[in-house]
Amino acid sequence: MVRADDPLYVALHEDGRSGDGNHMSPTQCDYEIKYADGASTIGALIVDQFSLPRIATRPNLPFGCGYNQGVGENFQQTSPVNGILGLDRGKVSFVSQLKMLGIITKHVVGHCLSSGGGGLLFVGDGDGNLVLLHANYYSPGSATLYFDRHSLGMNPMDVVFDSGSTYTYFTAQPYQATVYAIKGGLSSTSLEQVSDPSLPLCWKGQKAFESVFDVKKEFKSLQLNFGNNAVMEIPPENYLIVTEYGNVCLGILHGCRLNFNIIGDITMQDQMVIYDNEREQLGWIRGSCGRSPTKAEYLYGRRRFRAPLRRRRATRGGGGADRRRDITFHMTLQIARKRHPPRHPALRRSSEPQPGGKHLRRRAQLHLHHTMTARLALLASLLLLLQLVPPSSAVVLELHGNVYPIGHFFITMNIGDPAKSYFLDIDTGSTLTWLQCDAPCTNCNIVPHVLYKPTPKKLVTCADSLCTDLYTDLGKPKRCGSQKQCDYVIQYVDSSSMGVLVIDRFSLSASNGTNPTTIAFGCGYDQGKKNRNVPIPVDGILGLSRGKVTLLSQLKSQGVITKHVLGHCISSKGGGFLFFGDAQVPTSGVTWTPMNREHKYYSPGHGTLHFDSNSKAISAAPMAVIFDSGATYTYFAAQPYQATLSVVKSTLNSECKFLTEVTEKDRALTVCWKGKDKIVTIDEVKKCFRSLSLEFADGDKKATLEIPPEHYLIISQEGHVCLGILDGSKEHLSLAGTNLIGGITMLDQMVIYDSERSLLGWVNYQCDRIPRSESAITSRL
Asked: Hey, which family's this protein in (predicted)?
């Protein structure tokens, strides 16, 4: 047992892998590690003997003994490994400990993963295409992404190499750009997009594929170009798999919880990848990784340390990256105790107090020889012999999208069993969560993923209380048709959706470790004729308003959250986060105002509109206001809109005559201005505009929502500055005098909807920093 006053404890916390640095027991080194998929582990640091092949001694090495396991979003009932072999750059990592004990002379580690299964792991010198390392993880820094030798036109993307990730994970922008490029670059019309339980994006051919090489010619290569002209080629076989159903699937996934991009096993196949901590370099070179050594040869002096890697099982086809989601690369280690060990002290569990305040105790069951299978993880600094463990904080979901040009803010939700990913537009103005679905689908949009396909047993009957609650939320009398299913029609201000109510599993990691078994949502099979074949970046709507069948109400009824509180934070840089429950609500600095208790929408009541801090309101009368995250732009009724447009134009005419109104129609918005040259950022013209403000009265108190120019302006692709406040009376919207505060006006603010206290609040916030309580980012995504 490692005590809390041991130098190893200090080293563990210096590596940043053990929570907040406060040990949970005075007599042992406890740790808690949280992972990007919502999982975590609680354990104690211990030391034991490791049997390394071809080495006479059995060195004592520290590793984690995890005593509290649970599940995350990617929970598997069975795991092919006993734990994690931590290979990162921290002081307590496996490689650091071997070097400190003199077993190896240089902190260099490498692996070669074969597309045919297996491969090798080595510690020692290596060479290849080298780039400098950055940060504590194995990161070569930023790279430019190319498709078929053509840049995808994005900013450089931060990259981390992680052998613990089976697949490669890109953040929102590069992921979407990659998907669009691959779809657009398909050279064959014989491929048809298909739903496959293995991965989100798959295609089928005229007959089942046996390996990636059967279809490789239809796809183009990707390239990552790093700053010193080091290029990583990513041919199709390094980003595609062939599933057991004979479909070819994209092995690059959406890293919805990440703020960097992970190069996983699939992209590192058939290459020797070298992590040289001595020279701060990372390298790769193409090679035959299938010729694994029959014996493990550890580096002693100048000899190479090589341990054979094994796969859990092979999949059909034999060639290419044909691995399923549950396949891992791992090695076998022997951990042994002395033949006559002293009585081992009890492990004190830090998470389950007994009556009387004492902690539960667990005896460590350590036998003479333990053969452990450990997965290789470059983002973990410990050898963790454990499984995935549950989360311990509120539900926080990453947002993607922007005001312009995407025009949507959405999350990735995993739905179904097996789970499939869908993009859902967050909408505080909608009651029902719904997906476009194949029932079959008529008059539907072109969406990013394969349409959700319900089965008859998923249908909610018209007699079900859920159907009654839906019609109560819609304010309509329930009518049961001949099919006895719960059909519905939802009218939006600018469209409609017809569908049927279904239930299915939502994979949603929650604060108390629970995961709701079923959620009721809409299967939308008709979106109206004007929406037919219109491409949109989302698969459906995440209904977040107040009602009985909203997602939040269902989560609360199932005990997933304890309070009907939600919030969002939309970044002007793109992205942001959404949260459920009150754990993320700041304790101070929030401007609060009462919400109308009778309103199903989130309305702070009536507000007066001011311009440039003028005490006199420009609105003729107080304006009825609704906060609606589903609206990209802000919509004013006729009088306040005309008043706003008038004062904005007046200011420009007197102070910024170099800006002239665009007479030709801009593709982005109705009212735009142009300068002598193309305008690139709002900062270039911000001085020409003044702030607006909405003032809400609460008795003697006043709550003010400040609306600076960057919260009502956009820069269009034509280089014009455009007004992001629209005339609700002329935009084919039946708002009946109501004013919508849309996403553009809520940028860079945490907006909180507290239905428990009937309060609506906002506070300036850095929304591109997603709140995380994780002490480490996992490779188990």
From this structure: Belongs to the peptidase A1 family.
Amino acid sitting at position 318: G
CATH architecture of the domain with range 395-577: Beta Barrel (2.40)
Query: How far, CA to CA in Å, does 681 sit from each of 569, 671, 718?
Result: 21, 17, 12
Structure tokens at 711: 């919260």
Domain boundaries along the sequence of the chain: 395-577, 587-764
- What is the per-residue pLDDT for 184? 84
pLDDT of residue 744: 98
Measure CA 299 to chain center: 40
- Of all residues in the chain, the percent with pLDDT exceeding 70 is 75
Helix (H, G, I), strand (E, B) or coil at 7: helix
Structure-block tokens of residue 736: 């009946």
The letter for the amino acid at 156 is: P
Confidence band, pLDDT 50/70/90 cuts, at residue 493: low
- Same topology, domains 395-577 and 587-764? Answer is yes
Which residue carries 């074969």 as its tokens?
Answer: 114
Cα within 13 Å of Cα(286), Cβ side: 6
499-to-378, 414, 432, 527 alpha-carbon distances in Å: 46, 20, 11, 9
CATH among 1.10.260.40, 2.40.70.10, 3.40.190.290, 3.40.50.970 for 587-764 = 2.40.70.10
- What pLDDT is stored for residue 361 in this prediction? 25
Known catalytic residue at 427: yes
DSSP state, residue 638: H
> Which of 48, 473, 526, 628 is labelled catalytic?
628
Residue 668 is predicted with a pLDDT of 86
Q: Are strands 519-526 and 434-436 parallel, antiparallel or unpaired?
A: parallel
Dist CA 24 CA 350 (whole Å): 6
| pLDDT at 296 exceeding the cut of 50 | no
Q: Which of 43, 38, 226, 243 is nearest to 140 (CA)?
A: 226
Q: Is 464 a catalytic residue?
A: no
- Residue 513 · residue 491 · CB < 8 Å: no
Q: Of residues 214, 427, 469, 748, which has the active-site annotation?
A: 427
Q: Which helix (H) or strand (E) holds 353?
A: strand 347-353
Residue range 526-576, pLDDT digits in tens: 987 666 777 899 999 999 999 999 999 998 888 788 889 999 999 999 999
Identify which of 717, 712, 711, 649 has the alpha carbon closest to the alpha carbon of residue 678. 717
**For residue range 642-695, what is the model confidence (pLDDT) as tens digits?**
999 999 999 998 889 899 999 888 888 999 999 999 999 999 999 999 999 999
